[in-house]
Amino acid sequence: MSNLSRRKFILTASTAAAASILAHGCSSGGSQSATTGGDKPSATTAANVSTVANAPKVETTKAKLGFIPLTDAAPLIIAKEKGFFAKYGMTDVEVVKQKSWPVTRDNLKIGSAGDGIDGAHILSPMPYLMTINDKVPMYILARLNTNGQGISAANKLKDLKVGLQSKALKQAADQAKANKQVMKVAMTFPGGTHDLWMRYWLAAGGINPDQDVVLEPVPPPQMVANMKVGTVDAFCVGEPWNAQLVSQKLGYTALVTGELWKDHPEKAFAMRKDWVDKNPNATEALLMAIMEAQQWCDQAENKEEMCKICSDRKYFNVAVTDILERSKGNIDYGDGRTQQNFPHRMKFWADNASYPYKSHDTWFLTEEIRWGYLPKDTKVKEIVDQVNREDLWKKAAKAIGVADSEIPTSVSRGVETFFDGVKFDPDKPEAYLSSLKIKKV
Questions:
Q1: What's CA 97's distance to the chain center, in Å?
Q2: Beta bridge pairs of residue 424
Q3: Omega before 240 within 30 of 0, i.e. cis
Q4: Regarding beta strands 138-143 and 331-332, do their DSSP bridges make them parallel or antiparallel, or are they unpaired?
Q5: What pLDDT shows up at residue 31?
Q6: Of 217, 263, 184, nearest to 104 (Cα)?
Q7: Are 91 and 45 within 8 A, CB to CB?
Q8: Over 80: is that where the pLDDT of 260 sits?
Q9: By the 8 A CB rule, do 62 and 25 touch?
Q10: How far apart, in whole angstroms, are the C-alpha atoms of residue 256 and residue 249?
Q11: pLDDT value of position 257
């Protein structure tokens, strides 16, 4: 298989039978038709919702927001279903399911005027890749969550005891190459968070992700099906797909990503720059609603209702049990290990999960340079200041009465430490990049 076709692996595959998945495994599909990317949006709005007195005077009541069926999309879904959008004057918000991250990108590129979308639940690096590579200026308005992803492996790798350390995979990958085969590892989008977590984990164990294995992009809802038919040997994806793999006894979770990097940034809420600039009050209203939804989602007493709403066919179309336990921080890894009340479970609001630290975006862009997705001369600080609108987050936070103690006073969370002891100083990204042994740049 050529490198190009591997890049485009299965992006257009349907979720039909295993034979269909295999048949389309190497089809071209890096950019699906944007007009066919969304399922019918949710038309429901919570009954008897009145606009509150502190709602902004919105320029429009309409917005089209995309999401991928992942637990970290919950704030957008809950803001719709619990009436938080309507509460702040955004009475005509559509929350539209997207088939893959390339479809999300394409629908953002054309905007709602072209039957696309205005904003989305999105992989945090994607607004930067769109702004730089696709010339579609984007704003990151909030982080939707921290933690909550996983790296899972096929049952056949259990004997290697692959867990937080990936070193044991090196021998298996080398053996596969010696047999003129490849170890196939899936992520959700080239340059996205799952790609970066997988690459970091592999490289920390001495595995070159561009030489020792084959990295394939697969849409999140198709991960389990691909593992079932042996199309991939391991994958990195968000919940509920790691939990579903375990519940179906098709594989196990090697690690959850909070173990890789404590309270790491994950998805973002991003919108087209032109929409935000044209509708500043409506943007604030959307942010207020999503932030209130994040607070609601983080309350232990709301977890079951959150998971029940998200499990519905129009959203995730999975069993509630596939979502619930890991949302509570209870993890069955599928290999005999369990965790209860895991401190690095998915967080929507706690520990400043919602605030979009610029230092985290600096890490994302540094990793994009590391793996050749962006050129070495990328003006990192300049582009972060352009795309990251943490100032709008702070304005919305104050508007909904968030205490000053819950609003970060610095755009940096400081030096970050990864599971392998490597440290990232956001003031010295070049030094971090230089210290890494395995990289493209």
A1: 14
A2: 416
A3: yes
A4: unpaired
A5: 38
A6: 217
A7: yes
A8: yes
A9: no
A10: 17
A11: 98
pLDDT band at 48 (very low <50, low <70, confident <90, very high): low
**Residue of 431, 284, 294, 305 whose CA lies nearest to 355:** 294
Q: Which residues contact 138 (CB under 8 A, 6 or more apart)?
A: 108, 127, 128, 130, 131, 270, 271, 272, 273, 387
Helix axes 320-328, 303-311, angle to 10 degrees: 150
Alpha carbon 290 to its chain's center: 16
Measured distance CA(169)–CA(149) in Å, rounded? 20
Q: Which residue has the tokens 């320029």?
A: 59
In whole angstroms, what is the distance from residue 126 CA to residue 132 CA?
Answer: 10
Q: Which of 73, 215, 192, 220 is nearest to 128 (CA)?
A: 192
Q: Which two tokens stand for residue 102?
A: 């390339």
Give the pLDDT confidence score for residue 45 in this predicted structure: 46
Mean pLDDT of the chain: 90
One-letter amino acid for residue 94 of the chain = E
The one-letter amino acid at 294: Q
Q: Which tokens hold the place of 380? A: 């990192």
| Residue 315: CB atoms within 10 Å | 21
**What's the per-residue H, E or C state across the chain?**
CCHHHHHCCCCCCCCCCHHHHHHCCCCCCCCCCHHHCECCCCCCCCCCCCCCCCCCCCCCCEEEEEECCCHHHHHHHHHHHCCHHHHCCCCEEEEEEECCHHHHHHHHHHCHHHCCCCEEEEECCHHHHHHHHCCCCEEEEEECCECCEEEEEEHHHHHHCCCCCCCHHHHHHHHHHHCCCCCEEEECCCCCHHHHHHHHHHHHCCCCCCCCCEEEECCHHHHHHHHHCCCCCEEEEECCHHHHHHHCCCEEEEEEHHHHCCCCECEEEEEEHHHHHHCHHHHHHHHHHHHHHHHHHCCHHHHHHHHHHHHCCCCCCCCHHHHHHHHHCCEECCCCCEECCCCCCCECCHHHCCCCCHHHHHHHHHHHHHCCCCCCCCCHHHHHHHHECHHHHHHHHHHCCCCHHHCCCCCCCCCEECCCCCEECCCCHHHHHHHCCCCCC
Q: What is the pLDDT of residues 85-132, one digit of tens each?
A: 999 999 999 999 999 999 999 999 999 999 999 999 999 999 999 999
pTM of the model: 0.90
